[in-house]
Amino acid sequence: MPEAAVAGYAADLATIRTDLNIPPGEEIKWKPPRASFLASAGGEVNRTLRTRMIEAAIAQQVRTVVVIRDFGVSRTKAEVGQELLRYLYERISMHLVSRVVN
65 near 91, Cβ under 8 Å? Predict the structure, then answer.
């Protein structure tokens, strides 16, 4: 996240929380805990929250890295952790190299 975007994204997120009546102490997670406000708020609130968060991130020029694991392959937790980190660092390295070259 660009340093200059942190305050702007925080302000955007505060507005989104207010607009959707999300309590101030509520942790925003993609899969909220059962007893939380977001778990009981319903699908439309959660879809709107996610959409607006992503739109705000795009507007603030936030970039992300996502690593997906295939659960069809049997490996130990340690092996999975090492593989995920390898993929993550590979993608970060590729991004940094492209920024330097371009």
Answer: yes
3-state SS, residue 99:
helix
Q: Is pLDDT above 70 for 102?
A: no
Nearest to 89 by CA among 97, 101, 99, 79: 97
Question: What would the DSSP string read from start to end of 12-62?
Answer: HHHHHHHHTT--TTPPP-SS--TTSHHHHH-HHHHHHHHHHHHHHHHHTT-
Please give the Cα distance from 91 to 26 (Å, whole number): 32
pLDDT in tens, 11-68: 999 999 999 999 988 888 777 888 899 999 988 999 999 999 989 999 998 887 666 6
